[in-house]
Amino acid sequence: MKRLLAATLVLVIVGPAALARADDKPNPTGTWKWTVTYNNQSREATLKLKLDGDKLSGAMVGRNNTETAISDATYKDGEVSFKVVRERNGVKMTSTYKGKVSGDTITGKISTERDGNTNTRDWEAKRAKD
């Protein structure tokens, strides 16, 4: 009887804590924002991500609120990775984003390939509050 009572108490106390920990698992779903500076001009960048099961999808929001779908998107163990391909004046530019989700922040690197050259820079995005 004492063992049954002890087991019940453990489940009552530990059960909700285990569920809370499952909810604390990093999740990339949401709208992410950060500031990008080119030629001394800053603008806000926006990324929309959605995790459905183990499938990551989303879009980068550009000028005039046009959305460019992300490709090759993956999410595993808190790590996000995807590509954004854009074309301007007939030249394709591919940016590869890799980062780690921690709460409401993604921190990582962006590698951009254009005309055979690769440029890498740091990336830190904050989840936008609804």
Blueprint of the fold:
Elements: H1 2-23, E1 30-38, E2 41-52, E3 55-61, E4 67-69, E5 71-76, E6 79-88, E7 91-102, E8 105-114, E9 117-127
Antiparallel strand pairs: 1-2, 1-9, 2-3, 3-4, 5-6, 6-7, 7-8, 8-9
Overall average residue pLDDT? 85
CATH-derived architecture: Beta Barrel
Q: Helical percent range?
A: 10-25%
CA radius of gyration is 20 Å
Distance between the amino and carboxyl termini: 50 Å
SSE string: HEEEEEEEEE
Tell me the fraction of residues in β-strands, as a range. over 45%
Count of runs of 4 or more consecutive helical residues: 1
Detail the poorly predicted runs.
Answer: 15-22
Number of strands: 9
Q: Please summarize the sheet with the most strands.
A: 9 strands, antiparallel
CATH level 1 class label: Mainly Beta
- Summing up helix and strand content along with how strands pair, one would put the structural category as alpha+beta
Categorize the overall geometry. Answer: elongated
What is CATH's topology name?
Lipocalin
Strand order across the largest sheet: 4-3-2-1-9-8-7-6-5
Total of domains: 1
